[in-house]
Amino acid sequence: MTNTLKAGVMGDPIGHSLSPRLHRFWLKKHGIDGTYEPFHIKPEDLKEALKSLHKRNIKGVNLTIPHKEAAMGFLDEIDDKARKIGAVNTVIVKEDGRLLGTNTDGDGFYNHLKQSSTFKAEGRAAVVIGAGGAARAVLAALLSAGILKVTLVNRTKSRAENLQKILGDERIKIADWSDRASILKKCDLLVNATSLGMKGQPDLDLDLKFLPSTSIVYDIVYTPLQTKLLKEAKLKGCQTTDGLGMLLHQACGGFRAWFGGTPKVDEELREYMLKALEE
Ligand code: ATR
After folding, report:
1. Per-residue pLDDT tens for 46-104?
2. Which residue of 30, 107, 130, 218 has the fewest CB atoms within a 10 Å radius of its CB?
3. Which atom of ligand 1 is nearest to the CA of 159?
4. Which domains does the chain have, with CATH numbers?
């Protein structure tokens, strides 16, 4: 029997996932005898695919669209992070075959923010744009890091209110979409947690005239790396952070759990992943 450690990513479609390239980079770097494969799994096959991991000697998987929420019904344990975010992006198969679901998106976002800027959460006010899964991960991370206040603003206000209700934290305030420019007056951190600005999508329509130049601006979009939002923020003198780091940092938790070692997000990895984005 071989001792090769096995993991992968399940999605539908799966062809464009960057995770195999990322994990294989670290496997090689750390000299670990391991594999990381893309698994094309249709929603109706997800339950069986997860249940079969243990007998196939697979240590765990990442989950991507459309499985992140649905998988919660098929796992034995869901940790607090995944519960708060309402989705699982990392499954760990325990020694006894039990399946643990966690979510590393919030940590990925926050660890990248810390690595690439001078941001500290305590006493600071953030504005988060969006109310989908990504916004929920960003919110959960900021709240657990000890942020003073987060103003959530979304085109469809009821979705923002719904998130506020689910997370049940009085530090979350809701603003009207029409006020999105003026709420930037007191903003230490601005996060675009929508897909606006991504290749093939319209730009985020946001006037930065009130945004202080001391603010940090984070865009979760990474194709392109420099969105209109980040370019405009840079012109104002703000520190800016692109979304590629979130993708790279969120992968660390799974890698550590399945393969061991201490994966690092550095310039070499960024350059290597950027090559794939440019192809
Ligand atoms: P995800 O789970 O990946 O974050 P999502 O649930 O589809 O994705 O959420 C996309 C986000 O982008 C939402 O906050 C959406 O706003 P609505 O809730 O009003 O739909 C936001 N969004 C998408 N297109 C937009 C547009 N043209 N203007 C403003 N917001 C937009």
Report:
1. 999 999 999 999 999 999 999 999 999 999 999 999 999 999 999 999 999 999 999 99
2. 30
3. 18
4. 5-104+251-278 (3.40.50.10860), 106-245 (3.40.50.720)
